[in-house]
Amino acid sequence: MNFRVLAGMPTSETEMVIAARFEELAGADLVSSRLTSTDLISGAGEYPDLDVVLIHQELGPAPVFDTIRDLSHRHPQLAILLVSPSMDPETFTAAMESGARGVLPADSGATELETRVARAAEWSRTLRRHLESASLDLPTSGVRGRIVTLSGAKGGVGTTTCTVHLAMAAARRDRLVCLVDLDLQAGDLPAFLNLQHRRSITDLVDAADDISPGMLAETLYVDPRGPHVLLAPQHGERGEDVTARATRRVLSALRSRYELVIVDCGSTMNEATAMAVEVADSSVVTVTPDVPALRGAQRLMAMWERLQIRSHEDVHSLVTRHSRKNEIQPEFLQQLLGTKVLRTPVPAAYRALEPGENSGDPTRVTDEGLRKAFARLASELDLLVPPTAVAGGTGLGGHTTPSAELPQGLAGRASRPQPSSGPTTRDVSGFLNAMGPDPTTTGNQSRPTGPSPWGQGTQRSGGGIGV
Fold it and tell me: For all residues of the chain together, what is the average pLDDT?
């Protein structure tokens, strides 16, 4: 198979010249040429078997060395050659520092062009083979990687923010992390990470029965800050293509290649997110300390139980926007939901999150309170330890709960009421009583909630939060 080359030329004249030279080559094909740096970057993602990118020094509108740097970050397996009218040391040094493999004279003949392209393409293919073989390696113990899902009780509770920062915290501890956006209609990871990538999970749907390492390498975005990212489709209507069966296959492929797979399920449930929650080792529901969010969390977990996806007792609740001034404190929230509440809440530091979210760079969040909170949460969820140290388990499928999921002393608190450091139940009882009973329960029937958080021998009938 001939080497495949993409060229970025500043004018139609230089484009015609480079096309004529490639017609003389027997071992390389010019698959396309682009006249702007923007089109060149987009084109690099359109050809999965691309080997070499030629960039003319006068290509615009972006500075050529910025374009090289961007391409090398997005596609580290590509060999980039700078085509330069001048071969001075400054140009060569700048090209190498930007990530180019070499500098090619603009007046190169066919022989020199073929030699330089062949060397660069061989390097590219060798690197791609190493990446694919490395991605096939399982942990030496044979234990699969862990899948952790985060679902929002409702929109705007900080699910994506928590997902991104937990993935970053794990990556900083040298874990091999894949971040998956399963918010198929409204996924917004590109804005949170300031990335542009044409591939998404829908590109793996048709090949769900046989997902090769090469397919994953072309579909995933490699973030230089640590995690690899699998995006939701750019157009929300394409989310319907991601079925439960395809989701299971994709997550299984990722689990076999990464130590940790963190999935953002958004705040709506569909067959894809339902499958993710079912196969996950740990499932987290993010909730703000207010009554609408509590009702949303209870509706979501009741639905999981009715569909036999996951028991509410096998779910962690993560409190976001926490403040000691809130009416509802985490201890009281645990009593209301009957789930295991993570000991570390995310503080209500809206302004401290702005630098990272407005710039698309989570590393710009420098607030110590937030950074420590996400680090503690990652530790509580066992995201910082190798997968060999964690036993797998899921919801209602007969698996066991991870042995290290709950910190010592927290498991017992999930089955008995805790004294609240905030307001008493009376402070919000008017809102709670107005929620009404669960229409799915009648008479003496009650939801199988296990040990009651309201006291020994007490059962709650109804899915709403009631007293």
Answer: 76
Pairing mode of beta strands 221-222, 228-230:
antiparallel
Do residues 71 and 53 make contact, with C-beta atoms less than 8 angstroms apart? yes
* Residue 52 pLDDT > 80: yes
Q: In what order do the strands lie in the sheet with 3-8?
A: 28-34, 3-8, 52-56, 79-84, 102-105
Cα 40 from Cα 242, distance rounded (Å): 29
Q: Are 113 and 44 in contact (CB under 8 A)?
A: no
Return all residues near 432 (Cβ < 8 A) that are at least 6 apart: 291, 336, 425, 464, 465, 466, 467
Mean pLDDT of 37-57: 85
* 281: DSSP letter: S
Strands (E), 304-443: 316-319, 340-341
Q: Which residue has the higher pLDDT, 109 or 432?
A: 109
- Phi, psi angles (nearest 5°) of residue 353: -85, -20
Give the CB-side neighbour count of residue 207, counting CA atoms within 13 A: 13
For the chain, the first-to-last Cα distance in angstroms comes to 71
Farthest CA pair distance, the chain: 88
Instruction: Name the residue with tokens 């999930």.
Output: 414
Residue 70: helix, strand or coil by DSSP? Answer: helix
Is the pLDDT assigned to residue 265 strictly greater than 50? yes
CA angle 295, 297, 303 (to 5 degrees): 100
E-strand spans in 209-289? 221-222, 228-230, 260-264, 282-287
Structure token pair of residue 438: 């669960």
- Would you call 439 exposed, middle or buried from its count of C-beta atoms within 10 A (0-12, 13-18, 19+)? exposed
Residue pair 235/250 in contact (Cβ under 8 Å)? The answer is no
Pick 76 or 295 by higher pLDDT: 295
Q: Does the structure show a pLDDT above 50 at 233?
A: yes
Pick from 338, 320, 324, 316: nearest CA to 417 = 338
The three-point CA angle 134-139-142 to 5° equals 130
Specify the pLDDT at position 132: 55
Question: In this structure, are residues 117 and 233 in contact, taking their beta carbons and an 8 Å threshold?
Answer: no
Quote the tokens at residue 80: 């980039």
Check pLDDT > 70 for residue 304.
Answer: yes
Q: Which two tokens stand for residue 383?
A: 């995201």
Which residue is listed with tokens 């919000």? 428
Cα separations in angstroms, 144 against 133, 148, 158: 17, 13, 29
Q: Is residue 453 very low, low, confident or very high in pLDDT (cuts 50, 70, 90)? A: very low
What does the pLDDT look like over 198-213, one tens digit per residue? Answer: 788 988 887 756 777 7
What is the pTM (predicted TM-score) of this model?
0.56
Rounded Cα gap, residues 361 and 315, in angstroms:
30
Q: Examine the pLDDT at 131 and tell me if it is beyond 70.
A: no
